[in-house]
Amino acid sequence: MYRLGLIGFPIQHSLSPWIHQRFLKKANLTGTYELIEIDPTESFEQAIEALKERGLDGFNVTVPYKEKIMPYLDRLDAEAQAIGAVNTVVNEHGLWVGYNTDGKGYVRALENKYPALFATKTQRILVLGAGGAARGIYCALTALGCQKIDIANRTAASARDIATLAQGETETSVLTLTEAEENLQVYDLIIQTTSVGMKPDETKSIISLDRLKQPSIVSDIVYQPIETTLLQTAKQQGASIHHGHTMLLYQALDAFELWTHKKITIEEMDKQLQQELKGR
Ligand code: ATR
Predict the structure, then answer these.
(1) Is the pTM of this model over 0.85?
(2) Which atom of ligand 1 is nearest to the CA of 155?
C-alpha cells in the first residue's frame, strides 16, 4: 500500500492524481495519491511538520514550493541540487530525499517519440525561455552529453545563469529572441519552455518560425492547447513536432519509479491524457 501525494497551491485541477492512480493500477499496486494543498498565507513550517506526521512514502512538489521545500529535506540528489528545485520527494527509511524529474522526464518523453534523436550529441539545440522548466531541461540535456545547446530568452541574465550549469563538452551561447529567429536555420531541435501560447493566449507564438531548418524538430512544453500555434506553424512548415503533455506523463513516471522501483509501460496513456485534457 503506497501513500503518495502532491503539495502545492493551487492544485485542485492537477492531473497528477489521474496519472498516478493509473500508474498504480498498471503496476498492480494499491495506494493513494492525495492532494495536499498548502495555502501560501499559512506557515509553511507547520504544514511541513503536519506532512511529516502523515508518513507518506513519497510526494510531488509543485508551484510555489519547489524551492521552498529544499531546506526541509534530509538529502538532495545532485541533479536537483544543480537545478535548484525539487519536484519529487522520496521517503527513504524515514529520511526525505529530494529529486527533480521535470527535465529528465521531458527528455525521456522526447526520446520516446524520436528514439534516434540523441544517438548523436552534436545536433544543435535551441532552448526558448530561461525559467524553472528551461533550467531542468537544460540540465538533463547537458547531463546527456549534448554538445551544442543555445538559450534564447527575453531577459539575458537568466539565460546566462542557466548556461553556468553546462557540464562536459556542452557549449552554450545566449541569444535574444530576435537573434534566435534570425539564426533559426542552424537548429535541429527547438524547445519552447515558456508559457507563451498557453490558453487563453493560444494565438501567440514566442518567435516566428520563418527560418526553420528542414528537417528539424519543434517541441513545446505548453499542453493547453495540446497543439500550440507554434507547433501548428512548425507542422505546416514540414517540421516534426513534439507535444508538451507527454512531459507530464514522463516526469510522473520517473517519480513513480523512484517511489516504487516498478517499471510499467504507458504508451496508450498518451492518447488518454489528450482526451482528459480536452475535457478540462
Ligand atoms: P517556469 O518555472 O514555469 O518555467 P518562469 O520561471 O516564470 O516559469 O519562467 C517563465 C519563462 O517564460 C521566462 O523565460 C520568461 O522570460 P523572462 O525571463 O524574460 O521573464 C518567459 N516568458 C514569460 N512570458 C513571456 C513573454 N510574453 N515573452 C517572452 N518570454 C516570456
Answers:
(1) yes
(2) 19
Judge whether 81 and 60 are in contact, CB under 8 Å.
no
- Which residue's C-alpha comes closest to atom 9 of ligand 1? 131
Distance from C-alpha of 245 to C-alpha of 222, rounded to nearest angstrom = 7
Catalytic member of 25, 26, 66, 199: 66
Q: Tell me: the pLDDT tens digits for 91-142?
A: 999 999 999 999 999 999 999 999 999 999 999 999 999 999 999 999 999 9
Residues 6+ apart with CB under 8 A from 98: 69, 70, 73, 75, 76, 77, 80, 86, 88, 89
Long-range contacts (CB closer than 8 Å, 24 or more residues apart) made by 166-169: 166/142, 167/142, 167/143, 168/142, 169/121, 169/145
Distance in Å, CA 155 to ligand 1 centroid? 9
Q: Do the Cβ atoms of 66 and 7 come closer than 8 Å?
A: no
| Ligand 1 atom closest to the CA of 158, numbered from 1 | 18
The 10s digit of each residue's pLDDT in 137-191 is 999 999 999 999 999 999 999 999 999 999 999 999 999 999 999 999 999 999 9
Residue 66 appears among annotated catalytic residues: yes
Task: Name the residue among 17, 15, 61, 60 with its Cα closest to residue 280.
Answer: 15
Cβ-contact 245, 198 below 8 angstroms: no
CA–CA dist 84, 61 (Å, integer): 13
